[in-house]
Design a protein that fits this description.
By secondary structure, the chain is α/β, with parallel strands linked by helices. The protein folds into 2 domains: 2-184, Rossmann fold; 204-302, Roll (Methionyl-tRNA Fmet Formyltransferase, Chain A, domain 2), CATH 3.10.25.10. The chain contains 8 helices and 16 strands. The protein has helices spanning 13-21, 47-55, 67-75, 92-95, 118-125, 160-184, 215-224, 290-295, and strands spanning 2-7, 25-31, 35-37, 42-44, 59-61, 80-84, 102-106, 129-136, 146-153, 231-235, 238-242, 246-248, 259-261, 266-268, 274-276, 280-281. Strands 5-2-1-6-7-8-9 form a 7-stranded mixed beta sheet, with helices on both faces. A 4-stranded antiparallel beta sheet has the order 12-15-14-13. A hairpin with a 4-residue loop joins strand 13 (259-261) and strand 14 (266-268). Helix 1 (13-21) runs parallel beside helix 6 (160-184) and helix 5 packs antiparallel against helix 7 (215-224). The longest helix is centred in the middle third of the chain and has 25 residues, at 160-184. The chain is elongated, with a radius of gyration of 22 Å. The N and C termini lie far apart (56 Å).
């Protein structure tokens, strides 16, 4: 089969590699335009674009699938389009171009967590099990019939980045298997069934920790927003970025947001018991250990996160 592959971030690269390794004719890659990265804001190809260049595959860069982009896709004459975290909506005109339509690899067990941030929302919600699904893309938001699924246990210390890394590898196998079944003519997609939940894109505000919440909820939120947009709080009006925190149920005498510096750790009170800070990045400084950060405090016993 002639395959158009659509994807942008690093988590989509394993799927591109899997399709090439499986022998599919990947005729082109659709990805978002080069973006400015780093302090010098240097225009940089997306991870998928960079990998496609290494593989010698033509790249279509487009911020959205408009009429011109649809025309360029049609010129490639794909039998099917495989899409993994492209980052844009595929309109009806483009959906009808490939004979077999568009097959989406989504990192949740649909209909749970439809939307842009399924893994992040799953961790924040405290799910024990998540997974990935391949489904037929249609006009609705992740509503199409499902071809196949896989499950993945959410580990107690998983960040969104950790979980996405694992799902990107296992999901690549699932996507390749789905396209092989479609090519062989025996793929069967089943309508989605079960409780629907939504996973809208995370904003900076989603990363703010509310110290009045229970420690477990704070732990889940911090893990769910790592690495992006990142967990944060404020100290004297300045934003402070935090890596995931560790629950400390043995410490219950700290008021929410109150900090205690111990010999080998820095604790913060919550709505239940304390949490132990991971690395911390004060405004205008680099990420550092909590011990190094605490040494720079003039009066640590009076420091309170807001």
């Amino acid at each position: 089969m002639r395959v158009l592959f659509a994807g942008t971030p690093a988590v989509a690269v394993p799927s591109l590699d899997a399709l090439v390794k499986a022998g599919f004719d990947v005729v082109a890659v659709l990805t978002r335009p080069d973006a400015p990265l780093g302090r010098k804001r240097i225009l940089t190809p997306s991870p998928v674009a960079a990998r496609a260049a290494e593989l010698g595959i033509d790249v279509i860069r487009a911020a959205k699938v408009d009429a011109d982009t649809t025309s360029r896709i049609a010129e490639c004459a794909p039998d099917v389009a495989a899409i993994v975290a492209y980052g844009g909506i595929v309109p009806p005109a483009a959906l009808g171009v490939p004979i077999h339509g568009w097959i989406n690899l989504h990192f949740s067990l649909l209909p749970a967590w439809r939307g842009a941030a399924p893994v992040q929302r799953s961790i924040i919600a405290g799910d024990d099990i998540t997974g990935a699904a391949t489904f037929q893309l249609e006009e609705g938001l992740d509503t199409g019939p499902v071809f196949g699924t896989l499950t993945e246990t959410v580990r107690p210390d998983d960040t969104a980045g950790d979980l996405l890394d694992r799902l990107s590898v296992s999901g690549a196998v699932l996507l390749s298997q789905t396209l092989s079944a479609i090519d062989a003519g025996h793929a069967v997609a089943q309508p989605q069934a079960g409780e629907v939940s939504l996973a809208p894109k995370l904003t900076l505000d989603d990363g703010r920790l509310d110290w009045t919440q229970p420690a477990l909820a704070i732990n889940r939120r911090a893990r769910g927003v790592t690495p992006e947009p990142g967990a944060w709080t404020t100290l004297e009006g300045q934003r402070v970025k935090l890596e995931p925190v560790l629950p400390r149920p043995d410490v219950k005498d700290l008021a929410p947001g109150t900090i205690r510096v111990e010999a080998k750790s820095v604790l913060v009170g919550t709505g239940s018991h304390a949490v132990e800070l991971g690395r911390i990045q004060p405004a205008g400084k680099k990420m550092m250990s909590p011990a190094d950060w605490a040494r720079g405090l003039a009066a640590p016993e009076r420091v309170v996160f807001e």
